[in-house]
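>> received
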Amino acid sequence: MKIFKLIVLKMFCIVLVQAQTKQPKIKVYLLGTFHFAQTDSTYDVLETKHQQSIAKLCKIVEKQNPDKIFIERMPDFEYVNRMDSLFRAFKNVDTVVRRNEIWQVAFKVAKALNHQTIYSCDHPGQFGYYYSQLENYASQHNQQSLLKGIGKGITIPQSDLIDEDSLRNNISLLAYMRWLNSKQVQTSAHAHYINLYPQMGNTNVFVYDSTYFLGAELTADWYRRNIKIYSKIIAQLNYSEHAIFLIMGNDHIPIIRHLFEGNPFFKVMDTEMWLGKSELK
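>> returned
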């Protein structure tokens, strides 16, 4: 009798799993970005050439037809969806001109797709707190070279190997976004978090003190923040969506992509396939 019950239970589990996997997966479109309003004084996204490039970028996103658009904004620190009121004002021809990528991309795409709501999902981290501790420790324990990326087993982000302001000023905004979202740029940025910082702090594994895992705590906090961002996204889904779109600072994308890739209810769309590959090497 026990064997029969186990067989029935196993068959039920198999049927349940098959039913879940047959459900159409929600397509996930992830776009890493620079912060449009935080560039040097020589770059202004409101210039005609940049506005033309942004229009092309928005058209590309519109073609993916996402049901919900998520932005880098902290909802739980506003208590109400303040972004919806700002979005409504935007749709009614808001006279306030904002350079932020939320207005320049997310709002424009949402308006074109006749969305009624904008979805916020950001969460605060403590990067500044941990980094300042690392700086102090490095100066007192001869680890300054590590902090500068000099040492074994350290990846330097590709964005640190070039003059980003110069690059932005010499190519179109769309071309720059394609470069940002290229696999080599995002992979190198993510690698920097997981192979530089964990080497710092007290690395004597036999001596546990307040600086034990000091660098690893920074990396852990970065993961913690992005896991909570991911949690806020899926908390706002009803699983009837066919596609969702997220625009967020580029360094966030690798972890968020990994989380969605591990969730069988989602299919992460290759950004280089729908946005276009970068021509920069």
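>> The mean pLDDT is 90.
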